[in-house]
Structures are given as C-alpha cells and as structure tokens.
Amino acid sequence: MNSLLPTYGPRTIEIAQASGSYVTDVSGNTYLDFVMGIAVCGTGHRHPYVQQKIEEQLNRVWHTSNLYMISGQQRVAEKLTKGTHLTHAFFCNSGTEANEAAFKLVRKWTKKTKIVTFTQSFHGRTFAMLGATGQDKVKQGFGPMVNDFIHAPFNDMEALNLIDKETSAVWLEIVQGEGGVVVANQSWLQALQEKADEYDVKIVVDEVQTGIARTGTRFAFEQTPLQPHIVTLAKGLGSGIPVGAMLTTTEATEIFGPGSHGSTFGGNPLAMAAAEATLDILFTPTSLQHVKDMGDYLKKGLTQFVDGERFIEVRGLGLMVGLVSSEPVAEWVTQLAETGLLVVMAGPHVIRFLPSLRVTKSEINEALMKLEQILQKEGVV
Ligand SMILES: Cc1ncc(COP(=O)(O)O)c(C=O)c1O
C-alpha cells in the first residue's frame, strides 16, 4: 500500500546521486538536469564549497531557534541587501512562507485590504497565498479564499487603473514562472511604479523563482524600473537546503517589531551556512555575467526549433527560459527524460529550462542535441 497522500502525480524517477549538472537514478540511469529542483540548486548539485560550509556547520550546531542570536542571519541579510535600496531581512523556510510574511507586513503597514495581483501568477499554497495566486486550479475545493486579492491581466496597461487610493499593495512576479515563463514588459512596469507612487501603494515583488541570480542579476527587479518595498525569496537561496527570506526597507522595522512575526526553524544555522556560501558563489560579477551569457546561448539554441507552427516562441530572462508550443508539451517532457534530459513544464504549453547557473556551453549543446533527437524522431525537425 502507498502510505503517501497522493498530492503529487505519479513519480517514476528517484534520484540517488547528484553532482553539478548531472543526476543518477536508483537504476543507474544518468540525466542532464535542467530542472535543478525547480530553480533551486543554482550552484549545481552539491557544489563543493557549499557542501564544505554545510559540513562545517553540521560539526558545530544545527538548531537553536530564534531565542538565541544566529550571526549567520546578519551576514546573509547584509549580502542580500548590499547595493540595493533594501535594508532588512526576515528568514523563513519556503517561498509561500516568505510571501505570507509579506502579506502580514503589508496588512499591518497600510491597514488596507485591497491587493492588486495578476492572472496566471503563482505565489504558494498557504491560505493567503492561494488567494494571491491567479490560477483557479490550486483553489478548487477549498471554499472561500482570503479575499484581499484582485486579479488583473498581466502586462495590461488598462488593468493598472485598478490601483487606487484604496489599494494597499500591488504584488507581482517579474517573470511569471509557473504561469508560463511570461516576462513583464518594461513600459508596463514603469507605469505600474508610477501608479504605485501616485497612490502610495506598496510594491511586493515575488522573487521566489526569479531571485538569487536566476535571471542574470541578483534579483530580477534590478533589470526593471521597480523599487519594491518588499521582495520575497526562497528556492535558489540555499542551493537545496530549505530557506526563505523577505527583504524590505527600514520603514518596516516600525511595523514588524518583537512578537509580530516569527518562525521556529527560520534562519537556522544550517540554512544560513548554505545561503551564505550560495551568495558567495552566485553574487559575483563574473558569475552573473555567466548566467546572462549562458541564458543568451540557450535561448539562441532553442530558437532554431521555432517554426511558427509547433513551436511559437522562446522567452525568458537569464537562465529561466521557456520554449512555447502550440500543443500540450507533457509528452515531450516525458520523452526528454527518457533520452536523459530533465526539463519541467510551465503550464500545459511551455517547456521550461532551469539549468544550474554554472551550466557550461557543452552541457547546453548536449541538451539541445537531446531535444533535436526527440523532435527528429517525431518528424518535427
Ligand atoms: C513565484 C513563486 N512564489 C512562491 C512559490 C512557492 O514557493 P514554495 O514552494 O517554496 O512554498 C513558488 C513556487 O514555485 C513560486 O514560483
């Protein structure tokens, strides 16, 4: 009997070993991993420096709770905020928790309950974040949602008129990840910033998927005109060790004082060791340039498959890339795994590529070859 609640669909692959861009399953099959735990292992699997720092921490102390000082939190907060307008961090364990912290902060800060969010967004699965998420499929069967959230069409200028003096916050992803790798337009973001300024509305940028160098800058908002009051992070922050964070500005220290929010595990020493090592590797100009270069290389390589019929478009930022099809892509994703390439869907029509941020040209070539093999077999190319 299967003793697990069937919240996930059937899973046929169990990964037993992982290193860099490659994983091996329990039967000994090796795969080139362009999923990376869904944009989590940005440094690649088991990066030796991250592993060393985690092992050193394992030999000191694992857990203390936030009753005691954890100096790693201060160091990680500084590394995350340095060179930005953001000044303070709160640590938690996942993306949905980081967003939940942002929701509580915005409620207390603005004392208003109207938040403008966008269709096809994904913000997590706590109750408030189900309300925030702009996809009905995650809400079915759960009854009334937290109803602060209004869902406007993404990249739609007219929709910005929903931002008014009753609005507490506007909440968005710069690249909608689960929603299909949809990149926000610069002119739309400029207009959004102006509307938010006009009505003194907080801007919350969910960088759970786009953050920690995934798009070629430390945070995706750095490539936009946005000056968010709150940025949420998780996924890539710990290279695979669970950790989330909410970043905000000095003003918020007045709102989130002692007792207003907390977490038993949030910012634990092990997570902080992993996060600090991850940032040391990924937040360097060379490393960020590598993400941009490899992102361009991958996009260019995928463009050869765009025929205007079966494949319509390649889109994304940095190493968050989607190949958009006119047809459902589930079968391609299964076939690619069978040829040894792991990719993940972003909605029914988009094949999403989320390789290690240290991926090499030859690994990208290998992925493109595997894709070509499958398409040739199907008579597509
Ligand atoms: C943009 C975004 N926000 C929030 C979440 C939720 O993060 P978690 O699964 O760590 O709770 C995700 C997860 O895919 C995400 O992509």
Attribute tags:
single chain, 381 residues, alpha/beta, Aspartate Aminotransferase, domain 1, Aspartate Aminotransferase, domain 2, 2 domains, 7-stranded mixed sheet, 4-stranded mixed sheet, 10 helices, 17 strands, 32% helix, 19% strand, globular, binds pyridoxal-5'-phosphate
Explain the overall architecture.
The protein has 2 domains: 15-47 and 285-377, Aspartate Aminotransferase, domain 1, CATH 3.90.1150.10; 48-282, Type I PLP-dependent aspartate aminotransferase-like (Major domain) (Aspartate Aminotransferase, domain 2), CATH 3.40.640. Helix content is 32%, strand content 19%. The protein is built from 10 helices and 17 strands. It binds pyridoxal-5'-phosphate. Residues 94-96, 99, 122-124, 173, 177-178, 206, 208-209, 234 line the site of pyridoxal-5'-phosphate.
Counted beta strands = 17
The secondary-structure class comes to alpha/beta
Figure out the total of helices. 10
Strand line-up of the largest beta sheet: 4-12-11-10-7-5-6
| Average pLDDT score | 97
Structural domain tally:
2
Terminal CA distance reads: 44 Å
Query: From the alpha-carbon coordinates, what is the Rg to the nearest angstrom?
Result: 21 Å
Largest pleated sheet: 7 strands, mixed
**Would you identify the CATH architecture of the largest domain?**
3-Layer(aba) Sandwich
Unreliable sequence segments: none
Order of helices and strands: EEEHHHEHEHEEEEHEEEHHEEHEEEH
EC number: 2.6.1.11
Pathway: Amino-acid biosynthesis
Organism: Exiguobacterium aestuarii
Enzyme class: transferase
